[in-house]
């Protein structure tokens, strides 16, 4: 394989967009056309370069970003194939950090799907060059003219075709370099001349000199427009549209030419936004696309194989990395030495001698490497990081416990590995419910996590919906006393406690006050009384949930010079608290969450009605772009069990939501009565 002589011969491209649009098949077609593979693999047969994970092959969907490369006309093209499901945005969004160009792949049959809109918006937010690849143009009944009009309505008039379908989608004709169609190769709609004119007019608008030439001469040779073309791409003033059929190969050769001739090299795209410093002191900075500078590289993907170990995949932004280079990870003080520098082709890795700006490479078996880390070779760069990605918040929870006793530590280690690979997979040890809860972006996200636990890491687990973290508190003051006496022959146990409970403001926590006078309870036993109170608070009094926002004051008590022991005052404090709590008008509190739902505007009425049926309070709606709207509401968390299924039903799969804890509030009286009844029955058992 030839090596490009300079940064100007490197291209980086991420294929993004909805599942089923053909991104993986398109990657295969590009690799095959460039001579990197002998024959294109098949998603159905599980033989593609990018979908090499056993779970991916069985499910016939990309579940993680795969890194590939090809060469064409002495250019090196780094190609990232990303998952199309919204459940795997933790994999697809980081791919935008590694490339100059985001290629949004649109299915000519399905049209503009929500994931295409989202990825277009995210790519624009990261200031990437954007292009649209319309795939499957050869399918029966496809109306490419109507789809192009819809793209321009949705994304703007800057969406202009670089080529057009011809011969019923069996081929494409160039509209950029060719001002007129060749005889016998007319486009299926519009005309090459009209498309060429629209492209040139759009590009010259960014350069006053070319505008004047165009007005005077009537046309400008497209070969002279490279600089203004790159400027138009950087500014989003042009979003080129190309047509292909990955299945038949129509337009694939033309797409390769577009990539190497028209898309930006690392010096021509917008430089990524690095920050130097922490918090409010952080200042923006840009890497210098210079192989002679000190190294700055960003880790956008981590994969942890049970046999190979940790693999860190990075984009080099500045400097040159070679085997033997000493690199620091973030603000770490101990460098590691690069042993093997790898270029990836799906699961295959080839060792290379060096990697400079624009290259995507990997290093293996470096335990310190983590997702989003910046690697550098200079101590003064220890506080440089990329502007954080705005990931969706994982809100779908699943409680896990190992099926086999003794696997608790093994489960914790494997979950930590999975979370290291996926920034949208969160692991929580919920002390209030004593559960290990995994949070993901959706049901499919969690199902794939369970598949990997079982198939890849050989850990069997039992699952359940996570329990709601209810709380108990009181609404009035009350007093109680309890005498603990136990005689078992020989020394006995004796302790008596008089205490008072009072409510505190919501969120105030717990206060313990000692007002015992005259040594009625010796000071050495006061901590035992508090321990007993805390035990009762943790276990709950009326419904089995932790007690919060209470002041407990120890007023009096009695002790025995021989029989009083710590255990006696623990028991007396616990039981006195329970008695006082039951007399203090106790209530159960439930978590209330702020919900933001984004969905098609036409579905908002259905959504607000459904939220009202869930004891929700709609707090506002906002109209967004592309026919979308946002609903803001406040809803009891208990009412959102299984909400993703309901939301998908109401919005035909186009709705998404995020949650954030707002506060705790009193459960309805009938709910508390049922919770208390179940708790009492459980105690009786």
TrEMBL record:
It holds the Pfam family GTP_EFTU. InterPro entries: EF-G-like_DII, EFG_II, EFG_III/V, EFG_IV, EFG_V, EFG_V-like, P-loop_NTPase, Ribosomal_Su5_D2-typ_SF. Keywords: Elongation factor, GTP-binding, Nucleotide-binding, Protein biosynthesis. The keyword Cell wall biogenesis/degradation does not apply. One of its GO terms (molecular function) is translation elongation factor activity. Residues 8-267 form the Tr-type G domain. It comes from the Bacteria. SUPFAM superfamilies: EF-G C-terminal domain-like, P-loop containing nucleoside triphosphate hydrolases, Ribosomal protein S5 domain 2-like, Translation proteins. PANTHER family: ELONGATION FACTOR G-LIKE PROTEIN, TRANSLATION ELONGATION FACTOR G-RELATED. Catalyzes the GTP-dependent ribosomal translocation step during translation elongation. During this step, the ribosome changes from the pre-translocational (PRE) to the post-translocational (POST) state as the newly formed A-site-bound peptidyl-tRNA and P-site-bound deacylated tRNA move to the P and E sites, respectively. Catalyzes the coordinated movement of the two tRNA molecules, the mRNA and conformational changes in the ribosome. This is Elongation factor G. It comes from Sphaerotilus uruguayifluvii.
């Amino acid at each position: 394989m030839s090596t490009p002589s300079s940064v100007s011969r490197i291209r980086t491209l991420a294929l993004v967009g909805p599942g089923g649009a053909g991104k993986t098949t398109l990657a295969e077609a590009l690799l095959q056309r460039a001579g990197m593979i002998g024959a294109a693999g098949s998603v159905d047969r599980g033989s593609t370069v990018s979908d090499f994970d056993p779970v991916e092959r069985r499910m016939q969907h990309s579940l993680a970003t795969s890194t590939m490369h090809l060469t064409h006309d002495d250019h090196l093209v780094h190609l990232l194939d990303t998952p199309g499901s919204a459940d795997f945005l933790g994999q697809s969004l980081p791919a935008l950090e590694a490339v100059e160009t985001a290629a949004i792949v649109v299915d000519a049959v399905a049209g503009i799907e929500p994931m295409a809109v989202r990825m277009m918006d995210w790519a624009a937010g990261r200031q990437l060059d954007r292009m649209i690849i319309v795939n499957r143009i050869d399918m029966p009944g496809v109306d490419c003219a109507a789809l192009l009009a819809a793209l321009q309505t949705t994304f703007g008039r800057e969406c202009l075709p670089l080529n057009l379908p011809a011969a019923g989608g069996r081929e494409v004709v160039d509209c950029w370099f060719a001002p007129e169609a060749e005889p016998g190769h007319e486009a299926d709609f519009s005309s090459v001349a009209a498309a060429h004119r629209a492209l040139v007019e759009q590009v010259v608008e960014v350069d006053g000199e070319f505008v004047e030439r165009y007005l005077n001469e009537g046309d400008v040779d497209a070969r002279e427009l490279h600089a203004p073309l790159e400027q138009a791409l950087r500014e989003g003033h042009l979003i080129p549209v190309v047509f292909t059929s990955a299945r038949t190969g129509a337009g694939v050769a033309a797409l390769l030419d577009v990539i190497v001739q028209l898309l930006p090299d690392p010096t021509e795209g917008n430089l990524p936004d690095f920050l130097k410093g922490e918090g409010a002191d952080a200042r923006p900075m840009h890497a210098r696309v210079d192989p002679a500078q000190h190294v700055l590289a960003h880790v956008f993907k981590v994969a942890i194989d049970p046999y190979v170990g940790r693999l860190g995949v990075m984009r080099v932004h500045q400097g040159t990395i070679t085997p033997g280079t000493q690199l620091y990870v973030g603000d770490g003080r101990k460098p590691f030495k690069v042993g093997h520098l790898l270029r990836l082709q799906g699961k295959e890795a080839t060792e290379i001698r060096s990697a400079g700006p624009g290259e995507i490479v990997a290093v293996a078996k470096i335990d310190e490497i983590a997702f989003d880390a910046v690697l550098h070779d200079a101590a003064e760069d220890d506080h440089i990081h990329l502007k954080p990605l705005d990931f969706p918040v994982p809100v779908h929870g699943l409680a896990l416990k190992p099926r086999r006793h003794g696997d608790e530590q093994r489960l914790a280690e494997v979950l930590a590995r999975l979370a290291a690979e996926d920034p949208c997979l969160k692991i929580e040890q919920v002390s209030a419910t004593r559960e290990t809860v995994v949070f993901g972006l959706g049901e499919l996200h969690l199902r794939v996590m369970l598949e990997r636990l079982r198939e890849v890491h050989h850990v069997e687990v039992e699952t359940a919906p996570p329990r709601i973290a209810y709380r108990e508190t009181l609404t009035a003051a009350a007093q109680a006393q309890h005498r603990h006496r136990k005689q078992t022959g020989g020394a006995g146990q004796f302790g008596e406690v008089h205490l008072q409970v009072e409510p505190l403001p919501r969120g105030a926590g717990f206060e313990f006050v000692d007002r015992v006078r005259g040594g009625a309870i010796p000071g050495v036993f006061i901590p035992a009384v508090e321990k007993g109170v805390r035990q009762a608070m943790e276990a709950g009094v009326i419904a089995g949930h932790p007690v919060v926002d209470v002041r407990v004051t120890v007023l009096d008590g009695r002790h025995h010079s021989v029989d009083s022991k710590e255990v006696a005052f623990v028991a007396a404090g616990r039981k006195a608290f329970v008695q006082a709590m039951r007399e203090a008008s106790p209530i159960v509190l439930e978590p209330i969450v702020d919900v933001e739902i984004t969905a098609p505007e036409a579905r908002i009425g259905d959504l607000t009605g459904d939220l009202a049926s869930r004891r929700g309070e709609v707090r506002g709606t906002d109209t967004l772009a592309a026919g979308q709207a946002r609903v803001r509401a406040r809803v009891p968390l208990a009412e959102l069990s299984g909400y993703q299924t309901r939301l998908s039903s109401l919005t035909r799969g186009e709705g998404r939501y995020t949650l954030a804890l707002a506060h705790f509030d009193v459960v309805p009286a009938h709910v508390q009565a049922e919770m208390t009844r179940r708790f009492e029955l459980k105690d009786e058992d």
